[in-house]
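lol ok so funny story. i was supposed to be doing the assay writeup but got distracted and ended up predicting the structure for this chain instead. priorities right. anyway since i did it might as well share w the group, maybe its usefull for someone
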Amino acid sequence: MAKAFKFELQDVLDYRNFEQEQAQNELAKALAVETQINNQLDTIAKNFISVRKQIDASTDFEDIAIGNRRKVLLETQKEDLLNQLAQAKLVSEEKRAILAEAMKKTTALEKLKEKQLEGWKEEENRAEAEMIDDLANRQV
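and the output, tada:
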């Protein structure tokens, strides 16, 4: 009776798959932060355009002064968000590198498993052929 194939490093492979999944989740979180910051930058850009239109349409000095203060505030917020975006991109690149390494480790173990499975199949086929030959020889 043939015994079932057992990959000796299955626990390690399972752990590597877990690590890879964790790395994918961490990268997704980092990319979500980037997206959120980009959305905030888009909102600031729209607000900046709106303020500029209000300033251009106004003849009241006070409205113009308020608009200019809002532009300065929006510019400050934009600079802060650009700094945050640069940091977020660095984090994303770090997470991407971690994921790439995890994928390499997982792929190497999966290839080893496939190679061992092929060897096991060949051994099973050889043993089966040997058993059939023995049975055929006994009947003769």
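The two ends are 24 Å apart (CA to CA). The chain has two helices and no strands.
back to the writeup now i swear
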